[in-house]
Amino acid sequence: MSRASATGDPSGAPHVTAAVLAGGVGARMGGPRPKQMLPLAGRAVIEHSVAAFCDAPDVDDVIVLMVEDYLPEIEKMVDDNGLAKVSAVLPGGATRTATSCAALRALDTRDGSDLVLLHDAARPLVSQRVIADCVSALAGAGAVGVAVPTSDTVIEVEDDDSGAETLRAVPPRSSLRRMQTPQGFHLDVLRRAYDRALADPALAATDDCGVVLGYLPGETVRIVEGDEANLKITNPGDIEIAELLLRQRPQAKDRP
Ligand SMILES: Nc1ccn([C@@H]2O[C@H](COP(=O)(O)OP(=O)(O)OP(=O)(O)O)[C@@H](O)[C@H]2O)c(=O)n1
Ligand SMILES: C[C@](O)(CO)[C@H](O)COP(=O)(O)O
């Protein structure tokens, strides 16, 4: 697999774009504003997410896909905070999948050998280790997911004839993981997967690695170790948990 750069990087490393997906309204969180705009330790949730990729040495530029009404606020956030790697702030789509497609469209003119990392804006605690591991793993795979083991037993359920939920299956826990983001791709791989997925009227994806698995069956999706702290702000109370996790994290100046 070639790592040659279409962008003329003298090191030969491919160009890496991070796309921060922030097109959701945060229905489960509730409240007047999307959850990615909530304050977390003095910054908006989305600012933590964007800053993490701006700080990542492997990442060349960052695009942000945001709920349309909030685009001016995000542009101001980028300017006010010197988030200089942000190259575009664009509208997201009506579903997460549509927002991933909007990110792909924004990268239409890029070379297929470029790399893209798709990340939930709602995961503000993503670490530099996870970002670096995701990029490194793309040297050996067309797609990379980030996942953690599950300490709970995960079950499958179904409704019985009366509509009551019942247990259908208990898959072996040792092979189960909980998927996180970022998820990384060679751009040509993600393009081919979505070309096929969008032609399928039954498309129902909850993440982008799943689209590659489902529509490009021959493509390896490597899984690298995620981080329990890389939680997805989803429900009321999650901001408070993220605040606690952030307090435990060593400050940049104290890191070895
Ligand atoms: N139309 C959408 C829906 C979701 N997302 C993004 O995908 C990530 C994960 O989605 P989720 O946690 O489901 O966010 P929401 O859709 O905002 O939440 P909810 O389902 O509770 O409305 C979030 O960063 C969210 O902003 C997106 O970019 N575009
Ligand atoms: C992509 C994801 O974060 C992986 O765990 C998750 O599937 C997003 O789901 P959501 O319902 O859009 O939050």
UniProtKB/TrEMBL annotation:
Family: Belongs to the IspD/TarI cytidylyltransferase family. IspD subfamily.
Pfam families for the chain: IspD
Source superkingdom: Bacteria
Site note Positions MEP for the nucleophilic attack, residues: 173, 232
Top EC group: transferase
Protein name: 2-C-methyl-D-erythritol 4-phosphate cytidylyltransferase
Pathway membership: Isoprenoid biosynthesis; isopentenyl diphosphate biosynthesis via DXP pathway; isopentenyl diphosphate from 1-deoxy-D-xylulose 5-phosphate: step 2/6
SUPFAM superfamilies reported in the protein's UniProt record: Nucleotide-diphospho-sugar transferases
Organism annotation: Lipingzhangella halophila
A GO molecular-function descriptor: 2-C-methyl-D-erythritol 4-phosphate cytidylyltransferase activity
Function: Catalyzes the formation of 4-diphosphocytidyl-2-C-methyl-D-erythritol from CTP and 2-C-methyl-D-erythritol 4-phosphate (MEP).
Alphabetical UniProt keywords: Isoprene biosynthesis, Nucleotidyltransferase, Transferase
E.C. number(s) listed in UniProt: 2.7.7.60
Primary gene name: ispD
